[in-house]
Amino acid sequence: MPTDRERAVFEAAIKLGALYHQFVGTPVSPETAASIEKAIESAVSLQPYVTKVKVELDRSVMLENPFGYSEVSGRMFAVTISTRVGDATCTAALRYENGYPMMSIID
Amino acid sequence: MPTDRERAVFEAAIKLGALYHQFVGTPVSPETAASIEKAIESAVSLQPYVTKVKVELDRSVMLENPFGYSEVSGRMFAVTISTRVGDATCTAALRYENGYPMMSIID
Amino acid sequence: MPTDRERAVFEAAIKLGALYHQFVGTPVSPETAASIEKAIESAVSLQPYVTKVKVELDRSVMLENPFGYSEVSGRMFAVTISTRVGDATCTAALRYENGYPMMSIID
Amino acid sequence: MPTDRERAVFEAAIKLGALYHQFVGTPVSPETAASIEKAIESAVSLQPYVTKVKVELDRSVMLENPFGYSEVSGRMFAVTISTRVGDATCTAALRYENGYPMMSIID
């Protein structure tokens, strides 16, 4: 049987993997980024065991294509998610590091 | 060479196919549906040749799973998109009909 | 009422928009690209009014991230789709041009 | 610092969340299911720390829409993933249970 801590870790990671692959490719610009952030946060908040979620999309890497917008990509994400299972908790993050959207346990 | 009308039709359809497959599977509930609708509209608005977009997600078919939420699915969508290329326009829609998320030219 | 030609154009465009947003973000490498191409072709082939589909993912732009793989992105796609509605047909393509995954009617 | 076991759990969960949200909505039929399964397995295999992955899509719930196909949905998935970080391992699964695509640690 997994421990509550292992389950809290497991649940946090599901959400990071899920949100990344759900939203990558979504058209976005600095003007619309807030609505995409809010939608992602609202989606993650519904999922089981989530106690907190913060999503920030880096406007500075929203380079314009010829039609004046960008697409959500790994390099834009700064996400922190907290989960609780029983008395155990986990905080995990998604950050762009060394050319990779790195997901890691931070607490 | 395609006509402007054909291109307006083409551009409207791209957006319908795109939004459906981008957002299907997103966790949603009646409480968060408005933020998902807004995100979809903001994403579509950025795309080329779009002059108008309206997205409504049917709350009445957001059946709760054991964790109390639902996922965006074909049966929820009511979308209308208008495009303009040159002097030509097209309005197209996505509606759930006969068990299928039907996309069609309505003008 | 739309003409058969307009409907053939409409149907081709739906499939291009759909496949792009369905598969962008999928982990891929030159070794696995053929299975992703085949999956995309099999998915598009099922959709209504499609008579032909060819998907090629450009291996030369599958740059390795620190873990040795890449993700399906707009710059990889070369897709051609043909549709038929009544006696009318349409062939449309997705190509990466000028930094943009351009979709266009080619016949 | 997380333990190797926690990291193995974390990595397995990322892949489950990712594949679900990447592939949900993909057109599929019993005839094409094998190519979708293969594509998902090839995508997961590339991701870090994965040692084994098995994806099965339940053909018996691929109900035909009016155009004769279905879409990948939560009720179709039977997935098992194994990861290794250092000397620690984790096996996790995705199964449809009680109307929900349940992800859990099984070893």
From TrEMBL, chains A, B, C, D:
GO BP annotations, alphabetical order: tetrahydromethanopterin biosynthetic process
Enzyme class: lyase
Annotated GO MF terms: dihydroneopterin aldolase activity
Residues the record lists as binding substrate: E11, M103
InterPro entries: DHN_aldolase_MptD (IPR027508), MptD_sf (IPR036839), MtpD_C (IPR007181)
Subunit annotation: Homotetramer.
Domain of life: Archaea
Protein name: Dihydroneopterin aldolase
Function: Catalyzes the conversion of 7,8-dihydroneopterin (H2Neo) to 6-hydroxymethyl-7,8-dihydropterin (6-HMD).
EC number(s) recorded for this UniProt protein: 4.1.2.25
Keyword annotations: Lyase
Dihydroneopterin aldolase MtpD C-terminal domain sequence ranges: 3-105
Pfam families, per database record: DHNA
Family: Belongs to the archaeal dihydroneopterin aldolase family.
Catalysed reaction equations from the record: 7,8-dihydroneopterin = 6-hydroxymethyl-7,8-dihydropterin + glycolaldehyde
Record pathway: Cofactor biosynthesis; 5,6,7,8-tetrahydromethanopterin biosynthesis
